[in-house]
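mind reviewing this stuff:

——
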Amino acid sequence: MKLIYICSPLRGDMEANLKRASQYCAYAASCGVIPIAPHVAWNGVFDDTIPAKREAALRLGLELLKRCDEVWVMGNEITQGMQGEIDEAARLHRATVYVLDEQVEQDLKIRQEHTPLALEDCILDSNRQDYEGKTLVLDAQCLITNCRKSENSLWVAYNGFGCTYGARGQAVYAKSLFDGHEAHWERADFLGIVKPESLEKWLRQNPIRHEMAYEVAQEAKQEHSLEPSAKGDLGWPYVNGYCHGENTRLVPTAENLAAYIATKGLEGDLTITNPLDQPFLTTYGTFIDRCSDFAFLEQQLKPVLIPLQTGEIEPPPIQEYSGPYELADDEEELDGELEP
């Protein structure tokens, strides 16, 4: 079992944060790992209100992090101390995954799928395409037995003669999508380019949140038929966004709703409705409160919203809908309103 460093807030309401950290540890343990949260393990040893002792605790925490296999960033808030731990994990090439409070509360477990991806997870005949810049499925047989896991399946090729189909050279230099470490492979070590649906499933089980993962997900949507339809991801011509009573008609794609939530949510709570003005989604500031379409929320909205919430990516401009407001006859009956 893997040893997992639990990264979560402490300062502020320390009693509540210690309780939450214990809950995070219980959640992680239920996912089949060994969790350790420094401020739970060392509760009462260091006084976090005394700067010198806080610094000593942080140093020991970073030493502990070096001995852990992964870092799990827990909750909807990233504090200054947590950011230092995240930065250290990146420096050490420790895989870092992010788990929101909603996932813990709903017991939505991660890292449950360990079977490595296979040929059926590749786009048909993609092994005859160029590989540079593509996300590739590594043949699990190239790995030692205890490394043949889903987390080690996906690699992003960035260089090497083997990236070009038909070239005499076979070297492919690639980065692990999971933890970012680089390796030299041969072209024959890869089964092909990953299918978008397999990539999405993999990202849900391994909720990494770095720039390469974000770019990979966006490129997959653009290149392999995961682009929004003419009516947007939700199938409606537009949605209404309400902030302090002000209505903005929005292009209904996941990316645009994420931009609206991350930007306007700073001004207050939001309500998003379908074209018949039936509530579809509500927020507490920039965080989701309720959404009537769970699949859209988990599979499309959250992957693009979370990097905006944490400040890793700047929100793009909000796209306002400028087309006709009348609904077609087949759109008069709409599903998706929030249940009372």
About this structure: The chain has three domains: 3-106, 119-224, 239-310. The first helix runs from residue 14 to 30. The longest strand covers residues 154-159. Residues 75 and 160 are 40 Å apart (CA to CA).
